Amino acid sequence: MPSTKYVFVTGGVASSLGKGIISASLAKLLQARGFSVTIQKLDPYINIDPGTLNPYEHGECYVTEDGAETDLDLGHYERYLNVPTSQANNVTTGRIYQEVIFRERRGDYLGETVQVIPHITDEIKRRIKLLGSENKFDFVITEIGGTVGDIESLPYIEAVRQMRWEIGTDCVVVHLTLVPFLAAAGELKTKPTQHSVKTLLEQGVQPDIIVCRTEKHLNENLRNKIALFCNVNPTAVIESIDAESIYDVPLLMLDEKLDVEVLEKTRMPMGNTPELSKWEEFLFRLKHPEKQVVIGLIGKYVELKDAYKSIHESFVHAGASNHCKVIVKALHSESITHATAGDILKGLDGILVAPGFGSRGIEGKIEAIRYARENQIPFLGICLGMQCAVIEFGRNVLGLKDAHSTEMDPDTTNPVIDIMEGQKSVSGKGGTMRLGAYPCTISENSRAFDVYGTPDIRERHRHRYEFNNAYLDLYQKAGMKASGINTKDNLVEIVELSSHPWFIGIQFHPEYKSTVANPHPLFVNFVKAAITYSEK
Ligand code: GLN
After folding, report:
1. Which pLDDT band holds residue 29 (cuts at 50, 70, 90)?
2. What are phi and psi of 415, to 5 degrees?
């Protein structure tokens, strides 16, 4: 077997062109040809990970099996490839510098001046090659965050330049740019692409393939022009037209032969004809729904779709699996009160209360849950959403008027949600929550058991607070059952209401594990329950 090939994906002209989707689509095509592929994201910011970033800054924080808090693009990688990622798949400038400075203090560089080149670039290259070591993968696709020309991304581009020099055709550079359509001129314009390739050239990197994001088709002339000005073959100018769904992009890239270009440039055999029948089936179901439901997503970052990225995508998977169009109506929890709940929530076939931190919007979440419980509307509460369901039940069913989480009200006399024992001594905020996959045992004769069809599951977590077991008996007797438990630490992971058609709260995040190939059973069943509700 030839050695691992490295594909670098850079971006130019503008941010948000979809480097993550292009990287994941290319990976999907190579995987469908029988190659083993992994993807990595290098983020140029100084935070060690996005765990401490506000969703307004960086969208959702995605959590891997091994408990890494990572960029949301890793979610795309998993959803497309159905292969778990890990800490090694996301590296930030903060992490690179932390490692180099740690080594400097240890004395590894005694006598030397520690510099961006070679010390920082060597560490970047080490992180890239780490995934290729042991020849586990035929391809490592490394997406470089940011846009070429940014000061922050210079060391990464320099590392690409060096790797290219060192390993030649074992490496290929794909540059994603924008070809804007100027309505006034009635034309697509190539100049921004030319400039962005020039910027890359100034940094010593000649891209091999140029992927052009565009809203109109690129004609032959335009492709030839880009090829000529940017020193690539016309076949290496790939059109990436705006698509109806991000899940169309692998097939669009297949038509444009992005995978073939990469295989030729890296002198790899073509492999099998890409096997994408399951993917096509999924797309067909997605585009030909037979019914429709409206789900309310109650959160506090609703104006920003990226803040709940994995939840939205899980609904896409679950919708397709149910032949159903799922309209997710994002609703601001701050606007929901006892008086407004009926007006705001009427017409919904299901209510999902989102994860979150802090007290903003918390009372609205609790009101939405009361509405779902009293009106027998299917309900799914994720992490903070589950904790709010416990608070709501405490206040409105058990009559514990000040029931709360000690996260929001440290002085409550009824701390039904309380800080986990292991969290009490933790003071630092970065990477210190209960993170990653933990086992959970589901009791038979429960809704959760019907959903999963097995008593043993593993789901991913990201929280500091938990159900307070001092209240467990009281809750169970009144009808809120703890149907999933982490038996090792005796933590309640799933609660459900026996007197409700579909009411589940989970302390973990199922949305991180839903993929095209394996839509998550909780979302699939929740949508099914919403369909049943809508048909009543
Ligand atoms: N803030 C809650 C906790 O830390 C819930 C976290 C979440 O929803 N991810 O326990």
Report:
1. very high
2. -80, 75
Which atom of ligand 1 is closest in space to residue 383's alpha carbon? 8
Choose, from 383, 392, 407, 440, the residue flagged as catalytic: 383
In terms of phi and psi (left: phi > 0; alpha: psi -120 to 50; beta: otherwise), the region of 72 is alpha
Residue type, 313: E
Residue 269 Cα to ligand 1 middle (Å): 48
58 HSE (CA, 13 A, CB side): 19
Distance (Å) from CA 465 to ligand 1 centroid: 6
Give yes or no: 313 in active site: no
Ligand 1: does its nearest atom lie under 6 Å from the Cβ of 285? no
b/e for 355-373, b at 16 or more Cβ within 10 A? Answer: bbbeeebbbbbbbbbbbbb
Which of 465, 467, 507, when mutated, tests ligand 1's pocket best, judged by the most ligand atoms within 8 Å of its CB?
465
CA of 355 to the centre of ligand 1 (A): 6
Which segments of 253-340 are extended strands (E)? 291-299, 324-332
Residue 1, CA distances (Å) to 136, 268, 391 in order: 11, 10, 57
What is the CB neighbour count within 10 angstroms for residue 180? 19
Judge contact between 205 and 15, C-beta under 8 A.
Answer: no
Verify whether ligand 1 is closer than 6 Å to residue 464 (CB atom): yes
Cβ contact 11:144 at 8 Å: yes
Instruction: Determine the average pLDDT of the residues in 202-224.
Output: 97
> Is the CB of residue 32 below 6 angstroms from any atom belonging to ligand 1?
no
- The finding on whether 467 has its CB within 6 A of some atom of ligand 1 is no
Q: Which of 311, 416, 462 to mutate to test the pocket of ligand 1 (most atoms within 8 A of CB)?
A: 462
Taking all residues of the chain, what is their mean pLDDT, rounded to a whole number? 96
Amino acid at 53: L
pTM for the whole structure = 0.95
Contact 211, 12 (CB under 8 A): no
Q: Residue 161 — pLDDT band, cuts 50, 70, 90?
A: very high
Per-residue confidence band for 2, with pLDDT thresholds at 50, 70 and 90: low
Among 358, 396, 365, 400, smallest CA distance to 381 is for 365
